[in-house]
Write a structure and sequence with these properties.
By secondary structure, the protein is of the alpha+beta class. It is built from four helices and five strands, in the order E-E-E-E-H-H-E-H-H. The chain has a five-stranded mixed β-sheet.
Length: 128
Amino acid sequence: MEVYNAIGRRKAAIARVYLSEGKGNFTINNRKLEEYFTIMQHQYIVKQPFLTLEKIDNYDVKANINGGGIKGQAEALRLGISRALLKIDPEYRASLKPHGFLTRDPRVVERKKPGQKKARKRFQFSKR
């Protein structure tokens, strides 16, 4: 049984994904999908590549995720799963690409500048 691996990133979240043929089990940081992502929307985000290809019960997913927030982690996992599916069959690209599952979202938090409150917000200006 061959294991396909890929990395997905989003904001500060990094997901290392290991895909193998199986019955559709998700193991994330040694926990079930429903335990790790308790919100249904995040579970749906993770399953989107499989739902698009209609192969939800064909592969088992094992993933290690760290960094970032819960939504960033879900989207990083989605990218990792999509990339691993491409390693299994490059023809999946035609159906995954239009949905944007193969595009790494480059938006990250802008750094705080010295002498300012936040990245763009300044301290209140006082004329006198």
